Each structure stands twice: as structure tokens, then as C-alpha cells.
Request: fold
Amino acid sequence: MSRSLRWGIGLLLIAGLLLGAFFFLPFRSWLPGGTVGNVPTREVVNGTLFNRLFPAPQAGEQLVFTQEKRGFSQARLKQGAEVRALLSISDVASSPASRNKFMHTEERLQSWPLVDQGSQASALLVADRFQVKVIGQGSGLDEQQRHELLGAFDLQSLAALNPSVVQAPAIPSGREALPPGQQAPLRLPLPGMQRQAPQAQPSQARAPQGAAPRKPSLFSFNRAKAALEPAA
Reply:
């Protein structure tokens, strides 16, 4: 490969990068922002779970997934060779500032807050947790087309992905938790029981004179000293 050819390929690559940056510059605020590096994995929904919730492509269309990571999934909606729109779902736990643009909107789509930005972008905030976005590409999409695409997502299943924190029941103060399988010690008298005066024990019958003393049975026990103990 000649030196001039190598220089030509290098210049083409640089021009392509600059062109791509210029193309996405108007939509930089709509691309996934912030970092999720300081958010625990268990608090961000995996992007893999979003893929099945994207709209099903119509006849002649194709849905091509281009990016998937923790808290984000993106796909291109293509019609033939033309890219009609960029579709994405993001977990705003990784970018809490994304909620701000929905604070003052009165527009709703299936009861969820809806906002439009410019002539090519629309977004929906589902369950106060997931941002669904449509960005028109190529010849573009009008407002109604973008809203129809947003409504074609499986929004109810997306809302059901909102994790709920289940807290263990609190232990009442003054009581100590025991290991599993053990019960709290029983204290006498039990509730509902009344103390009774001890009854006199019947005198034992005397053994016949000259008979050998009876050995205590292994199954005998002293009732006066018996006590309830917790199960092991």
C-alpha cells in the first residue's frame, strides 16, 4: 500500500468521525448521559430486559439493535436501507437528571408524562423510572408518528420492571432474634394460665419387708422439677 493511499484512508476516517459528531450534536441531550459506574448493579435494570419491549416492526421494516448495556438499550428502525428512527429505553436510575424535563409537562401518553424537543425527538417517562425515546432520522418523523412509536412499546410490562424494595419485618424492641429453627424461650406462667397452690404428693406405698428396693425406671421423672424448654 502506497504512502499516499494510507494518508487518504486516514483522512477519510477522521472526516467520518467529525461528520458523525456533527450529526449527533443536536441530539446530545437526548443520548444516555451521566455514568452508572457509581450505581450498584442491583439498582439498575439490565438493558437485556428492555429488548423484548420494543415495538414490533411492520411489513417492510427492520429493527436492528445497536447498543445494549446496563440501564440502556437502543435500536434503529429501518425501512429498506433507510434508518427512520432511533428508539431507546433507559433506566433513569443511572441519570436522575433525566427526570427534570418531565416535571412541568401536562401532556400524557397512556397516563405517562410526554415531552417533545425540537422537530425530531419525543420522550416518555414510564413509572417515574424508565425513559422511552424516539428520535427521527433521515427524512424524519412528524409528532404523531413519534407518539405512535412511543405507544407501540410494551409500556405496561416496562412499568412492571420497576424494582420494589421488600424490607424484612422489624424485630420488636426488647426482644432478641434467635437463629432459624429456634423459638423464643417460654416463660411460666403462660398467658391465660392461673397459678395454683401446689398439691400434696401422695405418699408412696412401702415395699414389703425383705423385698429388694425398686430401681428407678428410665422413663420416670420428677413432675415437681419438670420445666418447658424451647424446641431445638
User: Anything to note?
Assistant: Residues 43-159 form a domain with the Protein Transport Mog1p; Chain A fold (CATH 3.40.1000). Residues 25-36, 164-186, 217-232 have pLDDT under 50 and may be disordered. The CA atoms of residues 199 and 224 lie 10 Å apart. The beta strands are 61-69, 72-79, 82-91, 108-109, 112-117, 121-126, 130-136.
